[in-house]
Description:
Strand content of chain B: 5-15%
CATH architecture of the domain at 3-93 in chain A: 2-Layer Sandwich
Number of strands of chain B: 8
Number of domains of chain B: 1
CATH topology of the domain at 3-93 in chain A: Beta Polymerase, domain 2
Helix content of chain B: 40-55%
Number of helices of chain A: 3
Order of helices and strands of chain A: EHEEHEEEEHE
Helix content of chain A: 10-25%
Number of helices of chain B: 15
Distance between the termini of chain B: 53 Å
Largest sheet of chain A: 6 strands, mixed
CATH class of the domain at 3-93 in chain A: Alpha Beta
Oligomer: heterodimer
Shape of chain A: globular
Shape of chain B: globular
CATH superfamily of the domain at 3-93 in chain A: NADH:ubiquinone oxidoreductase Nqo5 subunit
Structural class of chain A: alpha/beta
CATH architecture of chain B: Orthogonal Bundle
Amino acid sequence: MTTTMKGKQVFDMLKGELASAIVEVQDECLVVKPAKLTEVAGFIKHTQGLEFDYLSSATGIDYPDYFEVVYLFYSLEKNHRFTLRIRCADKADPVAPSLTCLWMGADLQEREIYDLLGIKFSGHPLLKRIFMWEGFEGHPLRKDFKNGF
Amino acid sequence: MVFKTEPFILNLGPIHPSTHGVFRMRVVVDGEVITDIEPVFGYLHRGIEKLAENKTYKQIIPLTDRMDYVAAMNNNLAYAITVEKLAGIEVPERAEYIRVIMSELQRIVSHLIGIGSFFNDMGTFFTPFVYMFTGKEKITDLLEMVSGQRLLHNYMRFGGVSGDLPPEFLPALRKFLREMPPEIDMYDRLLKENEIVLARSKNVGILTREMAINASASGPVLRASGVKRDMRKADPYSVYDRFDFDVPVACNGDCYDRYQVRIEEMRQSIRIIEQAAAGIPEGEVINPVPLRFQPPAGEVYGFIEGSKGELGFHIVSDGSARPYRLHVRAPSLINLTALKNMLTGWKVADVMVIFGSIDICLGEVDR
């Protein structure tokens, strides 16, 4: 049975500077400052006892006030899961750090989020549209997207 | 005299018999050897995630059929499980058993097609494919019996399945369970020691264990690289914890291992169906939800072990009749992350063998 780690549990393991990178501790996840995402993700990947070595999925959500990116991690060894979230408050030009430096699996999923929601991932090796064609205007999964047809 | 050489860009697809749909690759070759590739997606993009935001929860079930269209039951199941998790709906015992039987039958269909087209890609033009289709046809008949559809079944509902098994189903299933294992053995016997198959697939397109984990591969691709991970065992959903089955793994991570893992998984699926068919209880098959179905506000991630890997649905609900956001964790797309690493260094003739061994469905890649 895969257990879900509690936000509080993981938060207690973060020390010093990393603890200040957390915006909110939720029941089963942590909300991280976008600028600090790679540090926190690297921490949960490499720390003994957490060892989240598998990035299962990355999803973007368009909320009225911000964009949220949700990352779901598994540890294959420990068989537990955990969720990290980041919120991009700048709706005009949302930018988030790319996790491709830690997990190659983030590659296509971040491209998908960029294509459909328009969140730019800094540090991504090839950030371009994946489903829509080059030259397509707008990002279809945004709530304010109007279909031109 | 010294010849000057330069890299050549070769375009493969999107219309190509071996891309299993409409998939395009820009392959950079140095002579015959591949130095770089860039996959190009989106030729089958129908915007299912956006469409889902404008449909009620029930109306989305037929959309899920159209993702991985050779494994429609699995998609239905993953979506139904997610919404049930969100709304806290109980599923009757009999429906859970029916779901397991359907899901495992569908896994065999998907693997048969996967293996059949893998050998097509290798150049055994349609002979193994037709053998696989004789087996697939029997299952399609069974699935048609319960759902009325041969391809896009649209069978699962929130809280159960759309209808009970017809009386002729279980006898037909028992007949199938007698006939299928020898047939799988025959496929395997015909193919596994074939010299050409061995030469073309052994040690070709190796995906190492570290790379498979790092690239978020799942399903048979991950297990062929030596990672024993199957969501049915790791985090059992439905009633999978009641059945006795093994998770086949291989250690080399080459094309041949991916084929072998699929063959072995079909045998395990048969084992699960045998146990489920023997233990299926009587009773209701659906615990109906109200006509105006509105789950509570919240966020949920539900998953199953689909035939291609971990198939997950991430739903954000605002308490209305339509999802605020629906995201699909599509194993076919994510399994392609490592494609570049698997192809680099191999020759052009190996591209389709390696690509075919991953077994993707473009309906799910592009959604």
